[in-house]
Automatic annotation (TrEMBL), chain A:
Its main location: membrane. GO terms for biological process: amino acid transport. This is Branched-chain amino acid ABC transporter permease. The keyword Membrane applies. Belongs to the binding-protein-dependent transport system permease family. LivHM subfamily. The chain crosses the membrane at residues 18-37, 44-60, 66-85, 97-122, 142-163, 191-213, 219-237, 244-265, 277-296.
Automatic annotation (TrEMBL), chain B:
One of its GO terms (cellular component) is plasma membrane. It comes from the Bacteria. Residues 6-247 form the ABC transporter domain. The lineage of its organism: Bacteria, Pseudomonadati, Pseudomonadota, Alphaproteobacteria, Rhodobacterales. Keywords: ATP-binding, Nucleotide-binding, Transport. This is ABC transporter ATP-binding protein. PROSITE patterns: ABC_TRANSPORTER_1, ABC_TRANSPORTER_2. One of its GO terms (molecular function) is ATP binding. It comes from Pseudosulfitobacter pseudonitzschiae.
Length: 305, 251, 327, 380
């Protein structure tokens, strides 16, 4: 394998990691502040993608489509927070898992009822449809570069939001002591709705961004959801920094594992069984990574005991 | 000279910049009640956890019955015969009072790997548990759900569970809290008799009880023991008066 | 008698009575459906030991269900094709005998539970939920991409395995077999909850510190519970594979683990008959709702949501009231 | 009220018996188990709609449709239900090979006919074949083998193969390699359900292949094609029709233009009846028919043709009637090989744009009278 190819694969790993971060950030915020496991986070991702595809279909504008994805997911987030989720904060994790599992069923089949069973069309804007040449002669899809940039900007914005703003202070206060912020006169239920909507909007944005280069279809959220969970568990639940590090680790492991493991096994076995065994191990690699991290750090890399 | 049953030797424990335990050495002799007092935040609970298990000291040793138990788990120390009660009740709240006591008896018997016979029909275990409940005066509440007990009654149950273990020494963290005046008095009488069975390391805020019961008193301030002695010695100690009792005098 | 006792008796008898009715009406499919509910109930009864009594929310119990299924699939596959399973210094043949298959299913899933439990129980709370999910996913992807036993296509067994003296292909006889096993396990779980081990495990769920202070180790209690739990779910997996005469990686999927939890919560967490009630209710809903609409899963979702939000304690909890402490 | 309904039930029962007693060409009860919910529902819905279109107005057919949710255990359960409770004569509808493997052996073991409108796993074409099992679609390898043949004819020398790491994927690539005489320069098996192919595309770009040949069903194919278009890699793209069918092309859009794919049917195929089928389907459902719709349609035609010749209760006669395949397939000529799998032509199609609609157009024949290689193992 040439160094150029390796660099390109590392870029690919980064890009998929950054997308995972958008999902994982919301998930980990919601857990950190409200102590809630939200399995329906994948549905918000799907809602973002479908909203984007629908709006892009009507208007032809990708920017409007992204805005619609943010708005639709945030709105859906607000609604489910107010109708369902807020009843779950005091419940144990089991009830949360179950109720949000039920939400997945409702959202998936509801979306299918609205949009039908066939995948929707959503493409990258024409201006970004080709590759760009990076230093070193790497041809890299410009849209993917854009995703990396947007993702990094959002990560930066999120860190700023939490470190600098009033709402960020409230979020941090909420993470360390839930009763305390109520005593400080913060409107908790409003704060919770805002945090949930923020997480939802990030998921929706990720769905729309990814939907343009993947398939916009019912059920697209669940595989990403599981990956996002792996990310926040590796990073330490509740930690935004952990989510970023975890997302990049998972993105890189997944991408490079799929490329390198078959090659590695090819060194000492015949090509076809090397491909089979390498691919089998590659598909398990992130779960193995997660198990290893938890064995040595039972609360993740940046988690609090 | 008799050997101390429990010997805490030069314990240090820091949490970040906070030195919670700062070179503590103390002993518990057979037959005595040794009270540990000190203002809030003095590091009593941290010290208790290093003695009974749950927090590992940065330096120093804990000896129990001549054996170094510093590296042992809570569970192993309990098996070695250290009976402990908690400041905040630590009980199986959904179980009945009797079941909590039976759990203690079960722990002592070590016969937990039994998967068929109902534990509440094990006459020997239930008898031990009943006896312990009677000693603390909870026999009438045997069938009550633990969550329905008052705070004071939960304290008594903590003590009863510790009794079922037939420990060689007790470590009790504020057993009087929430008992009320008459309850405190009864508990005082009870502990007074208990010291003949096994010595007690007693952390307590109720000064009347401490001065009535303790053979020796140690005063812990900012992680250090500033004085150890009989009730009279402690009352007279100028350091203690300024650091601890002094505050009350001023007030 | 307590209301829960009466309710349990009704639930327990509902299955054989319904099966007998179906038999009388010559509706063999209904018997198969009831058998399916009974097997799901068994799997969830296994999980309920860890989840209900031990407080261990495992989102990876499909791993044991699948291992049990594949124990049956692999053994029967080798017996069916007359190829030895292991053929080196020791020769191990496949088998079509149910008792042998069950034994293998129980032992292998118990061993897997021992390994997974020993690693996972170092964590707690959400981390435990997620690490068990991760182990389940590992098995899922392994089963899909390992070509030796059919990969995603799974393995078909043309004839149900045999049990001495029974015609297992007869729906009623197979149901009776499953029901006897379910009864035996329920009986044992009822005893287990009251046995010394059950008391200690339940206390460890409520307050781990308390259990430590009386000299017992919560880790070992939980590990043993997890192993027994996995073994029971593994046994259910072997029966499920025999019911369908087929195994596939979907038995390992995380949705399967989710469904087991759904059964328990629908029925009532920690109640002996909770998983039984939940599995029966779920299979009934599936049977009644799926012909109504293509989008019937919406209704399942809505019902589930309502149960979690408003009917705490599940079916049994709503009907029988708050749990009374044992004895 | 009660008496009334009892009488009504009795009448219906009598009518039912009368129909059965009618004997030759009597009513046939069909059980259709297909995927109608979840991510793979599009295929099942097309098969169902195609089948129902052909059966429309035929009152000799009594059709029960149930959703298998793409889960093997549900499919097995439904098959049991249809055989044991609904007492169907013929089963059909399953989309996925793994579900077919779970259901078909037990269906034929219980003496019922099974007509496959989509899946064709190799086991059922070879050692596991059955007199009661008829495949109206294809053996799984057919499109791949035809792809290899076409590549040989059209000067394609170096290919890069890609498929998900599961049996249908590996079998497909094996099928291609069976007929392909050029050089396979790379071979990648991805995780099932993978949605990001950046790593694989980079590998393909780095290889010296002139053509990438892939099989990625459903959303996987959509994702790959969109990402491929964005990568700017200039290589030919080929595959079986599964990744380029009508239901999917709409979601890929222009990114699919120019892709070659093998299929036994296309809506522009000029054979008798096909244009009528396409029009009728569009009129009925308001969308273009897909390959799966055509297969569902043909399955119903085959069944109806056999019903005209024999009574379904007479298993041997009905089997013989099915074997004749005396119907006008929308694929043109169609007959069964000894293992009850199709002998048919496979075409090469290219993705083009007709007005605003991205669709397929036939550009040539890839294989004539194609049949599978597993028939040799079939003893029946």
């Amino acid at each position: 394998m040439t160094p150029i190819l390796l660099i390109e694969q590392v870029l690919n790993g980064l890009q998929s990691g950054i997308m995972l971060f958008l999902m994982a950030a919301g998930l980990t915020l919601i857990f950190g502040v409200m102590g809630l496991i939200n399995l329906a986070h994948g549905s918000l991702y799907m809602i973002g993608a479908f909203a984007a595809a629908a709006v892009a279909g009507w208007t032809g504008s990708f920017t409007l489509a992204l805005a619609a994805a943010l708005a639709a997911a945030a709105l859906a987030g607000c609604i489910i927070e107010m109708v369902v989720i807020r009843r779950l904060y005091d419940r144990d994790h089991l009830d949360q898992v179950l109720a949000t599992f039920a939400l997945i069923l409702i959202f998936s089949e509801g979306t299918r009822w609205l949009f039908g069973s066939f995948p929707l069309y959503l493409d990258v804007p024409a201006a970004l449809s080709g590759p760009v040449r990076l230093p070193g002669g790497i041809l890299y899809p410009s849209y993917r570069l854009l995703i990396i940039v947007i993702g990094l900007l959002i990560a930066f914005g999120l860190f700023q939001l939490i470190a600098r703003t009033r709402i960020g202070i409230q979020i941090r206060a909420g993470e360390s002591d839930r009763e305390m912020i109520g005593a400080l006169g913060v409107d908790i239920s409003r704060l919770y709705t805002i945090v949930f909507a923020l997480g939802a909007a990030l998921a929706g944005l990720a769905g729309a961004l990814v939907g343009a280069i993947q398939s916009v279809q019912v059920g697209m959220g669940e595989p990403v959801l599981i990956l996002a969970f792996v990310v926040i568990v590796i990073g330490g639940i509740g930690s935004i920094k952990g989510a970023l590090v975890g997302a990049l680790l998972v993105g890189l492991t997944d991408t490079l594992g799929g490329v390198l493991l078959p090659l590695l096994f090819g060194l000492f076995m015949d090509p076809s069984s090397a491909t089979t065994i390498g691919s089998a191990l590659a598909s398990m690699s992130i779960y193995i990574l997660m198990a290893l991290v938890l064995l040595f750090r039972p609360t993740g890399l940046y988690g609090r005991a | 000279m008799t050997e101390p049953l429990l010997h805490v030797d030069g314990l240090y424990k820091a949490f970040g910049a906070l030195q919670a335990t700062d070179g503590v050495t103390l002993t518990l002799m057979p037959g005595e009640i040794h009270a540990l007092i000190g203002p809030n935040g003095a590091g009593k609970s941290t010290l208790i956890k290093q003695i009974a298990g749950g927090v590992t000291p940065d330096a120093g040793r804990v000896w129990f019955k001549g054996q170094d138990v510093t590296a042992l788990s809570t569970q192993a120390r309990a098996q070695a015969g250290l009976g402990r009660t908690f400041q905040i009740s630590s009980l199986a709240m959904e179980a009945t009072v009797l079941q909590n006591a039976v759990l203690g008896a079960l722990g002592r018997a070590g016969s937990v790997w039994r998967f068929l016979r109902p534990v509440m029909r094990d006459a020997a275990l239930v008898a031990q548990a009943q006896a312990a409940l009677e000693r603390v005066g909870l026999a009438d509440h045997a069938a009550t759900r633990t969550a329905e007990l008052s705070h004071g009654q939960r304290r008594l149950l903590e003590v009863a569970v510790a009794l079922t273990l037939k420990p060689h020494a007790f470590v009790m963290d504020e057993p009087m809290a929430g008992l009320g005046a008459s309850g405190s008095k009864r508990m005082t009488t009870f502990l007074d008799g208990l010291r003949r069975e096994a010595p007690i390391l007693l952390v307590e805020h109720d000064m009347d009880a401490v001065f009535a019961l303790a053979d020796r008193i140690s005063v812990l301030v900012y992680g250090k023991i500033i004085a150890t002695g009989t009730a009279d010695e402690i009352r007279a100690d100028p350091l203690v008066r300024t650091a601890y009792l002094g505050e009350e005098d001023v007030a | 008698m307590r209301r829960e006792t009466i309710l349990n008796a009704v639930l327990y008898l509902a299955m054989p009575v319904a099966a007998a009715l179906a038999f009388a009406m010559d509706e063999p499919f209904l018997i198969t459906l009831i058998t399916r509910a009974a097997i799901f109930a068994l799997a969830a009864v296994g999980l309920n030991l860890a989840l209900g009594l031990g407080g261990l929310v495992s989102l990876g119990h499909a791993a044991f269900f699948g291992i049990g299924g594949y124990a049956m699939g692999i053994l029967a596959h080798h017996a069916q094709t007359y190829s030895p399973m292991i053929d080196s210094w020791i020769v191990i043949e496949g088998t079509k005998s149910m008792p042998v298959i069950w034994l293998v299913a129980v032992v292998t899933s118990a061993l897997a539970a021992l390994a997974i439990g020993a690693l996972s129980l170092r964590t707690s709370g959400v981390y435990f939920i997620m690490i068990t999910l991760a182990f389940g996913q590992m098995f899922y992807y392994f089963a899909i991409s390992w070509p030796a036993y059919g990969g995603e296509d799974g393995l078909s067994i043309y004839v149900r395995n045999s049990f001495p003296g029974l015609n297992t292909l007869d729906p009623m006889q197979f149901f009776v077999l499953v029901f006897v096993i379910l009864s035996a396990v329920l009986w044992w779980m009822g005893r287990l909850a009251r046995a010394p081990f059950g008391l200690a495990l339940s206390a460890a769920r409520q307050n781990a510190e308390r259990v430590e202070t009386v000299g017992l180790g919560p880790f070992r209690l939980r590990l043993v519970a997890f192993v027994i739990s996995g073994a029971v779910t593994g046994l259910a997996g072997a029966l499920f594979a025999d019911l369908n005469r087929f195994v596939s990686p979907t038995m390992f999927s995380w949705q399967m683990s989710g469904e087991f939890i759904v059964f328990i919560v629908l029925g009532g967490v920690g109640r002996l008959f909770g998983p039984v009630a939940g599995a029966m209710l779920f299979v009934l809903l599936e049977y009644l709702l799926s012909p109504l609409s293509e989008f019937w899963l919406i209704y399942v979702g809505a019902i589930l949501l309502l149960v979690v939000l408003f009917a705490r304690g599940g079916l049994i909890g709503s009907l029988a009231g708050r749990e009374v402490a044992h004895d | 009220m009660k008496i009334k309904s009892l009488v009504a039930a009795a009448c219906m029962a009598l009518a039912g018996t009368a129909a059965l007693a009618d004997g030759h060409g009597g009513k046939v009860k069909v059980g259709m188990i297909t995927t109608l919910s979840g991510g793979g529902a599009g295929l099942g819905i097309d098969v169902r709609d195609g089948f129902l279109l052909a059966a429309k107005g035929n009152d000799m057919l009594d059709i029960v449709v149930e959703d298998d949710q793409q889960k093997p255990d549900i499919a097995v359960q439904l098959a049991d239900k249809m055989i044991q409770s609904e007492k169907v004569d013929v089963l059909t509808g399953i989309i996925w090979s793994n579900l077919a493997m779970a259901v078909v052996p037990s269906v034929t073991a219980q003496g019922k006919f099974y007509l496959s409108p989509n899946a064709g796993p190799s086991a059922l074409a070879g050692k596991g074949c059955s007199p009661l099992y008829f495949n109206v679609a294809w053996q799984n390898d057919a499109f791949y083998e035809a792809g290899g043949l076409w590549a040989n004819e059209n000067g394609i020398g170096k290919v890069f193969l890609m498929a998900p790491n599961y049996p249908a994927g590996i079998d497909g690539m094996t099928g291609f390699k069976r007929t392909f005489e050029g050089e396979v320069v790379g071979e990648v098996y991805t995780k099932l359900g993978q949605t990001d192919y950046a790593a694989e595309i980079a590998q393909i770009r780095a290889s010296d292949a002139d053509t990438v040949y892939f099989f990625l069903p459903g959303g996987m194919g959509i994702s790959f094609m969109k990402q491929w278009a964005g990568s700017g890699v200039e290589k030919n793209v080929m595959g079986p029709a599964f990744s380029f069918d009508q239901g999917i092309l709409g979601a890929i859009g222009d990114a699919a233009l120019g892709v070659k794919n093998t299929a036994h049917w296309s809506k522009d195929l000029d054979v008798p009846g096909n244009a009528d089928f396409v029009k009728a389907f569009q009129d009925e459902y308001g969308r273009l028919p897909s390959l799966y719709a055509a297969q569902g349609y043909d399955t119903a035609l085959l069944l109806i043709s056999a019903m005209g010749k024999a009574d379904v209760k007479d298993t041997a006669a009905f089997q013989a009637a099915l074997e004749e395949a005396d119907f006008q397939s929308v694929r043109g000529k169609f007959s069964f090989a000894a293992n009850h799998h199709p002998i048919q032509d496979i075409y090469m199609r290219e993705v083009v744009k007709e007005g605003d609609v991205v669709t397929n157009q036939i550009i040539g024949v890839a294989a004539t009278d194609h049949t599978d290689v597993y028939g040799a193992d079939c003893k029946m």
